[in-house]
C-alpha cells in the first residue's frame, strides 16, 4: 500500500522557469512533510519541510504548499537552475504516540531536469 | 561537521551468501536509521535505533536481516542468506533525536548487487 505517491516520474523545465513537483498521501495521520533532493550516487539531502498546522513554507527559491483537505502537497522552485536537476522525494511522518515518531514514509521520487 | 559515513560503497555477492554494511553517524546523533532503496522506488525504513535500543523494526525481514548498534554509535546491518530481491542501495541516516523537526542526514549508501 503506497501511502505517499509521486505520480510524475519525471519533469523537464527550462532554466529560469518554475518547477512544480507534486505529492499525494493517503494516511490522514501524517502531519509533517519533507522534501529531499538526491543526486546520483549520493544520499538524499534535506531540502524543506512543513507541519500540518501551516499551508505554506518558504526558503529562498523553494516553497512547499500543503492542502490537507486534498491530502496533497507541492514543491515550487523559482527560478529553476540547471543545478536543481536531481531526483526529488516527498516524505511524510505521523506524530502517533509510541515508537514511530521519526519514521518517514517516502514517495517514489520525481526526476527533475532543468535545461539551460 | 563530518557527515554520515558508510562502507563499503559497492558490494557484489552471490545469492545465499552473507554480507554486512557499516555506518558511522554524525557525532552526537542519538537516532540512527537503515533504509533499503530498490531501483525506481523511494527509501523504505528497515530499522530505527534510539541510542543502542531498537525503536522500530517492523519492516525488517528478521529471518535474514539483522542490525545492531553497540555502544549507541556505529551500526552494522547484516543479510544472511542474501536473495536476489535484496539487490538495492542500503542507506544509513542519523538525526539528533527522533523528533519530527529533526531532519535526517543520509550517507551515500552501499549499492548491493546479488548475482
Total helical elements of chain B = 0
The major pleated sheet of chain A works out as:
6 strands, mixed
Helix segment count of chain A? Answer: 0
Could you tell me which chain pair has the largest interface and how many residues each side has? A-B, 28 and 28 residues
Distance between the termini of chain B: 37 Å
What is the averaged pLDDT score of chain A? 93
Oligomer type: heterodimer
How much is the radius of gyration of chain A in Å?
A: 14 Å
Estimate the global geometry of chain A from the Cα principal axes: globular
Order of helices and strands of chain B: EEEEEEEEEEE
Low-confidence runs of at least 5 consecutive residues of chain A: none
Main β sheet profile of chain B? 7 strands, mixed
Helix content of chain A: under 10%
What class would the helix/strand composition of chain A place it in? mainly beta
Radius of gyration of chain B: 13 Å
Q: Summary?
A:
The complex is a heterodimer of chains A (116) and B (115). Chain A has 116 residues and is mainly β. Chain A has strands at residues 4-5, 10-14, 19-25, 30-38, 45-51, 56-59, 62-67, 72-77, 86-94, 105-106, 110-115.
Helices and strands in order:
The complex is a heterodimer of chains A (116) and B (115).
Chain A: E1 4-5, E2 10-14, E3 19-25, E4 30-38, E5 45-51, E6 56-59, E7 62-67, E8 72-77, E9 86-94, E10 105-106, E11 110-115
Parallel strand pairs in A: 2-11
Antiparallel strand pairs in A: 1-3, 3-8, 4-5, 4-9, 6-7, 7-8, 9-10, 9-11
Chain B: E1 5-7, E2 10-13, E3 19-24, E4 31-37, E5 44-50, E6 53-56, E7 65-68, E8 75-79, E9 88-95, E10 105-106, E11 110-114
Parallel strand pairs in B: 2-11
Antiparallel strand pairs in B: 1-3, 3-8, 4-5, 4-9, 5-6, 7-8, 9-10, 9-11
Characterization of the model:
The complex is a heterodimer of chains A (116) and B (115). Chain A is 0% helix and 54% strand. Chain A contains no helices and eleven strands. In chain A, the strands form two sheets. In chain A, strands 2, 4, 5, 9, 10 and 11 form a six-stranded mixed sheet that branches. In chain B, strands 2, 4, 5, 6, 9, 10 and 11 form a seven-stranded mixed sheet that branches. Chain B has a four-stranded antiparallel sheet with strand order 1-3-8-7, with no helix packed on it. In chain B, a hairpin with a 6-residue loop joins strand 7 and strand 8 (75-79). Chains A and B meet through strand 4, strand 5, strand 9 and strand 10 of A and strand 5, strand 9 and strand 10 of B.
Amino acid at each position: 500500500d503506497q501511502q505517499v505517491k509521486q505520480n510524475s516520474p519525471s519533469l523537464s523545465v527550462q532554466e529560469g522557469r518554475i518547477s512544480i513537483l507534486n505529492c499525494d498521501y493517503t494516511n490522514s495521520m501524517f502531519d509533517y512533510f519533507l522534501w529531499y533532493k538526491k543526486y546520483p550516487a549520493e544520499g538524499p539531502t534535506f531540502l524543506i519541510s512543513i507541519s500540518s498546522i501551516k499551508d505554506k513554507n518558504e526558503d529562498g527559491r523553494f516553497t512547499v504548499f500543503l492542502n490537507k483537505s486534498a491530502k496533497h502537497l507541492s514543491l515550487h522552485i523559482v527560478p529553476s537552475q540547471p543545478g536543481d536537476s536531481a531526483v526529488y522525494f516527498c516524505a511524510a511522518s505521523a506524530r502517533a504516540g509510541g515508537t514511530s515518531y521519526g519514521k518517514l514514509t517516502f514517495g517514489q521520487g520525481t526526476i527533475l531536469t532543468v535545461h539551460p | 561537521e563530518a557527515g554520515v559515513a558508510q562502507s563499503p560503497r559497492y558490494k557484489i555477492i552471490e545469492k545465499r551468501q552473507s554480507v554486512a554494511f557499516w555506518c558511522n553517524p554524525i557525532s552526537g546523533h542519538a537516532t540512527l536509521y537503515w533504509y533499503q532503496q530498490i531501483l525506481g522506488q523511494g527509501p523504505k525504513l528497515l530499522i530505527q535505533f534510539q541510542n543502542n535500543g531498537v525503536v522500530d523494526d517492523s519492516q525488517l525481514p528478521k529471518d535474514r536481516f539483522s542490525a545492531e548498534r553497540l555502544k549507541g554509535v556505529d551500526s552494522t546491518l547484516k543479510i544472511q542468506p542474501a536473495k536476489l530481491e535484496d539487490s538495492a542501495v542500503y542507506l544509513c541516516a542519523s538525526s539528533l533525536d527522533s523528533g519530527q523537526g529533526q531532519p535526517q542526514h543520509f550517507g551515500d549508501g552501499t549499492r548491493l548487487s546479488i548475482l
